[in-house]
Design brief:
519 residues; alpha/beta; DNA Cyclobutane Dipyrimidine Photolyase, subunit A, domain 3; six-stranded mixed sheet; 19 helices; 6 strands; DNA-binding
Amino acid sequence: MGKIALHWFRHGLRLHDNTPLQKAIAGCTSLIPLYILDTEYFKPGKVGINRMGFLLDSLKALDTDLRAIGSRLYVAKGDPEEVIGKFIKEHKIGAVSFERDTEPYNKVMDGKIINLTKELNVEAFPLWGHTMFDPEYLLALNNGDAPLTMTSFLRLMSEAGDPPKPIDPPKSLPPPPADSLVCKDVFIFQGVPTLSDLTEYEFNPKDYTTWFVAGEKEGIRVMNEFLAQKRRVSTFEKPKTDPTALQPDTTALSPYITRGSLSSRTFYHGLKDTLKGMKSSKPPVSLKGQLYWREMAYLIGFSVPNFNQMEGNPICKQIPWLTGDDAKALLDKWEMGQTGFPAVDAVMNQLRTEGWMHHLARHLVACFLTRGDLWVTWELGRDVFEKHLVDADWSINNFSWHWLSCSAFFHQYFRCYSPIAFFKKTDPNGNYIKKHVPILAKFPDKYIYEPWTAPKGIQIACACIIGKDYPKPMVEHQFVCQENKSRMKKAYDTSKKRDSGEPPAKKLKQNNLSKYRTK
DNA sequence: GCCGCGTTGAATAA
DNA sequence: TTATTCAACGCGGC
């Protein structure tokens, strides 16, 4: 009798550059490719329809790709530890492979699964693959701590060199034990579920409106299409791209990389090959730089305790943000695109309908919610982004909210985005606003960023009365922005005093690289 | 302790 | 278009 292996798909919803999958199939005669929808991880109410729809479409595409090489995907629902335990026992699984993860919840889960395989005496292949490098290796290379500045991270990258080359997808896979698998007390969907199969989320399929097409094939296609534009690749500078462009001015690869449909190593080496012998922009603004930002965010998320909150987070400035019901009322207006600032509302409308917006557009609205205008805790804004984004990514999202709220990494709180001025630089006519806040579409260009300044006659002619059909601005930007800057100064001064009061215990730094030396 | 720097500010001056 | 100023920064190298 041959050996049955189970490959548990985590983030890496792909066949190319999938090391744990390759390990699993090396010694087995039958393979169970399994995805587990964990409703603790994807909590109903916390996950929006575009994010979930994109996940399901990614699974559907994965199933199609698996079927093309003699296999298929099984989708179960429940707690991964329970599900995998039951599968091992009932199906006499001999080996379990999966991609290790850096997020706190998933790290704990990794440990549980590893223990489970030990208890049941099953071979296990928990391997890194969602990042370019093994994060434990990078930490060891950096004496145990994650670098907190891009400059120091780039130093670490130059020590680490190129990440491993991506490995090819398998040409065929061992067949599953049966087309219709059952497992006692485990809920297994018939095929890949659709949005309406997930009744506990109460989605209305009509609201699934993102334009992104999911899947590994599509991710690779989009990447290749971008890489073919050599000039665009070699001159790419992130801060110079246009947040108000009606078609993405960046690669828009983030949903594929986040879902693991596209390997970050594949993109890295694709860039390297494309730019061979060419002059090109440099990190951190270049495309390679964007991969480094991602890698840095993952390493920090992996090693900093309580990285998803302010309290107990050693790198996070302690700032007396609004929380609770006061914050919730402001947050709701922000989330629903009802702030009265057309630029902010356009971005939030794009978030809810498309599940994606340009990086600088995220900056504008994140600054507005926190240190710029509303003084609402970044944790709540983070949750809203995480709910709606098709590229929702725990590490990058938390990293960016630290940055924008001046809680860590970036500290020049006096540099504040203006909800009126910022988009005028790239979109003086307000075309982006006219698209995403259609009720304002008739306003003359000169009023599009400040419609409340339009004379009553013009408001009537545009069939949009400010304060009735579209809200008045919820704050006076100039005023609150100044007030918040002094609040920030106060919070920074307080934290300085506290820091000097109790010097941090000297940490013993140790370079523990020996276990990574292969030759 | 000083100084230069930091992926992506705004307003103003030249 | 580019440089300077704006009250307001921390980090890290020296």
